[in-house]
Amino acid sequence: MTFSGFKMVSKSFHSLKLPALLLLLFLASLWMRRQQASETRVERNPAAYDVMQVLAGDAMLVADAKSVKRQVRLACVVLPQQQRWRNRAKQQLTERLQQLGNQVYLDGEQTVLVHSLSGELLQLTLVEAGLLLADPTTAKACPAWETIALVEQRARQQRVGVWSDRADP
Questions:
Q1: Structural domain contains residue 82
Q2: 64 and 129 belong to one structural domain
Q3: What is the spatial distance between Cα 75 and Cα 111, in angstroms, rounded to a whole number?
Q4: Closest residue by Cα to residue 80 from 132, 125, 158, 123
Q5: Which of these, 139, 138, 128, 135, lies nearest to 162 by C-alpha position?
Q6: Percentage of the chain with pLDDT > 70?
Q7: Which domain covers residue 65, as residue numbers?
Q8: What is the rounded distance in angstroms from the CA atom of residue 132 to the CA atom of residue 70?
Q9: Where are the alpha helices (DSSP H) in 55-144?
């Protein structure tokens, strides 16, 4: 760029109004926070697992980096009793995992909290859609219990998924 071109850009920059500059600074700070949050999330989690197969709306077969396979069940939730909602939960979990590249982080051994690589809690996504139910028997042991219970309450109020049929799935 020539020196005269630099002057043109410089004059354009100086002619921006204060609100536009503030907006640019705000957007830049949001982007920086998002970058820091995603880096922090990835560093906290253990090694990623590949999802080999979704066995049910609350269970899957995963493999670690050494191709050691294990079956895991989603913690803090249960499947609805009706078969059609069980089928939809399995379908939704399969589709969401495919969108996420079939890789997840696991917190736990056999009954686990399942996170996407970006930090999304998959149990929460399915409870929000009314396809899984919060399991009150796990309330004391579930680190995400309060959030899962609140999201289920919202799903009930919005009558989504199993809650569209009746009040008690």
A1: yes
A2: yes
A3: 5
A4: 132
A5: 128
A6: 70
A7: 49-164
A8: 22
A9: 83-99, 122-128
Express each pLDDT in 52-94 by its tens digit. 999 999 999 999 988 899 999 999 999 999 999 999 999 999 9
- Best CA proximity match to 134, nearest among 119, 118, 123, 122: 123
The CA distance from 123 to 138, in Å, is 13
Number of domains into which the chain is organized: 2
CATH of the domain at 69: 2.40.50.90
What pTM was estimated for this model as a whole?
Answer: 0.69
Summary count for the chain: helices (H), strands (E) = 5, 7
Distances (CA, A) of 23 to 18, 27, 28, 168: 9, 6, 9, 47
Indicate whether 43 pLDDT > 50.
no
